[in-house]
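Quick start: load a record and inspect it. Here is Dynein, axonemal, intermediate chain 2b:
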Amino acid sequence: MEIVHVYTKLRGEFGRQCLFSDRPAELLVDVPPDPSLGLQFIQKTPRDQAVQACRDMSEHQVNTERFESDSCGINHVEGGWPKDVDPDEMEQTIRFRKKVEKDEGYMNSILQLGSIMEHCIRQNNAVDIYQLYFEDEEEVEESLEPPSAKTINVFRDPNEVKRTVTGLSWHPDGGRKLAAAYSCLEFQRATRDMSLDSYIWDIENPNRPEMTLKPASPLVCLDYNPKDPHTLVGGSYNGQIAYWDTRRGSQPVELCSVEQSHRDPVYKIIWLQSKTGTDAFSASTDGQVLWWDVRKLSEPTERLVLDPGREGNLDRALGAISLEFEATMPTKFMVGTEQGVVFSCNRKAKTPSEKIVCTYDGHHGPVYALQRNPFFPKNFLTVGDWTARIWSEDIKESSIMWTKYQMAYLMDACWSPSRPSVFFTVKTDGVLDVWDILFKQNDPTLSLKVCDKALYSLRVQDNGRLVACGSQQGGATLLEMCSGLSTLQKNEKSLLAAMFERETKREKILEARQREIRLKERSRSEQSREDDGGREDGEEKLVNGGRNQRIGLVNGG
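Running the structure step on this input writes:
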């Protein structure tokens, strides 16, 4: 059935009907012009008015929420076996393989895939994708870009009470991790609620440490084992030595007793080159250098007292604050002290007096950093008071090169592992200085304001590209150097070797000249003493002669 809607409306409701018709034009009004009205016209002064058609805007800063990532591992196991075959049973798997290999379908698929694989292998053999083109061409020197660095990450102390980053150590396997030691070195400033923990950071994740190290006392220094990337050794504020294996958790595996440990904070600990890879040695301001085997930390294996008199007197010992050991010189090591003296030592010597070979005196305050040049081990770098100094083993009296006095204390320094002429220093005003002594000696090549607080520690990755700086406010800043500061330059080694040799010769000439002046002064002083003695003898003779004459006159009278 079709539904129809009908709407009705009366004709009267539509309004009046319109009737249109043609009609001629008709003039209704005619107003003639009046010239007198023009005299009353007032011209208005024009005015410009600017109109802005856009909406008002305001700028606000928004801090976005941090993205936190979690590392998860997946364990892949062998699969694809039938339910009746146990993959752990070798006999069952061999039996199943033999059964499959006899199957016709298996043989056909192998023959079919064999021709495809053969084609791919021949194609690979025909084109060498690893071929180096233009090997014989001379390298075009890169454009000289200005030295620069950029901040990659900042690893902050996760605790409420911030502590100083007193020690840093790079993971030996590619430098993917950074271990940081946290402690408060200001005497009696540590609070009861201050954390004792130190951390291992993944350089890609600054939000949360990868692992926490839980020592009995705050760590002042720590060092990764170059032979085993899972093990670390650390020196504590109370003088104890602790050893960690990261596979066995956050607690130390071995810990030396308080009675056998240092009596002051352990400021430096370094792994030694040994067959077992378990030997290390530590230095402290109690004036001792102790050798340890981390498999048995009950007592040190060897002990050296830093007595300048070479008598082993602990009461006269100088406090050690920095250490240096070069793997290419396994018997030699160097110690920097609080009094500004550097000891050069020989471990294989039999007596304590023979172990201290010589001393270098050049700083007014503690030697905070001490490191041999990785390319020229006879030359070493020291940092103390307001200067950094480069020394030669052959010159004992003074350093061969030094920086001008800075406005802030220098707290740490190290050489670049990739460029022999570049070294880094950090200062208490929060500035990192990069020095290239081939480029200029008076001023740093690059100065970076890393943070507002003092920088205390510094470590460079093995490739020389990444630099980590530890600050007083608990932040470890990771910086990436430009290629010019991390890539070995043309003829750099030979030019630096010539510079070191020239400066060493100059210091030797000056040293010989000083020796001559001293000898002349000594001979002059001895001659003047002899002359004075001769005059005194002559005067005595004259006095005695006069006395005899007087006696003769008296007797005659």
